[in-house]
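User: Could you check the structure of this?
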Amino acid sequence: MGIHTGLLLLTAGFALGFYKSRLFTGEKIRRECVGLFCLAALLGNVLGLVLTLRSGRETLYPDGLVLPKKEGVSYTEELNVRIGSEKQTVRVVVPARRAEEEKDRREEAADETEPLKSREKEILSSIAASNEEHEDDDYYYLPSSWEGEALIWIRPGERTGVFLALLCFGAGILLVLHKIREEDEKRLKRSDALLAEYPGFIMKLTLLLEAGMTPPKAFLSMAQDYRRNRERSGGKSLVCEEIAAFCHELESGVSEGDAYQHFGERCAEIHYRTLASLLSQNRRRGSRQLCSVLEREAMEAFEERKRRSRVQGETAGTRLLVPMTLMLVIVMAIILVPAYLGVYR
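Assistant: Sure, the predicted structure tokens are below.
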């Protein structure tokens, strides 16, 4: 019961910690992770508590204990024995029912008790002597007294419930970690996609501004083109989705400066934040060199895209080393094993 109570308190503490932590990017994800953890941990704890209440309690035998012998098979049972105020663990070897095997097993048991504690050896010797007096082929007797002191034999309860509760608690933590990893992978893929689309986006925006459009009209034109292309081909662009959200905010009455700021925050990349800051400054102060600044930004974006492509190619080549090495080992084994067998045959 104490372990289950402790796990319940740990579950509450971990759930509160997960909910207050900064490991999650959104409120919805945070609630899903906390819900999965609580479901796994609490369900396992409840089932484990039921198993503990049914078969996890100790059973006391103050009047001695009789263990049945099995036909042709000896077995070991680990019991606790209370001698006065002290408690001792004893591994009792119950011999087989057959007399020949019983004798052999007694000799093995005598050898096994050599490294045991002195008191345990004395108790086992007393048990063996008592059973030699009984000469019962069907049962193995554990006495109720030893050297004038009462013996209370205790059969420990099963620990299946505790193991189940601990296993489910650990599974709940693994579920949360797996969810965090999934979110990190999604965020990384989204970041890579936004960075890959940035050079084309900034170049198109520059061309529209040089054609005489204002930034909001350029965003609106790109959003309309994206909607038409999406209806025909079904392709999806993360940048264009954010541009469409920007246009929707303007239509809803949000100020242009706030819409630029929200656009940079949703994209959550330094390049988009910088672009949003430039467009916001252009709206407030005016900038005759905005197109030249954007052209320079577009060139830098293309150069960075080339660098990223080279890095990704080198990373892919490094990852291919492992399967190539495995293939080399397999080919060498295919060649060398038959040659080795042929030489020593």
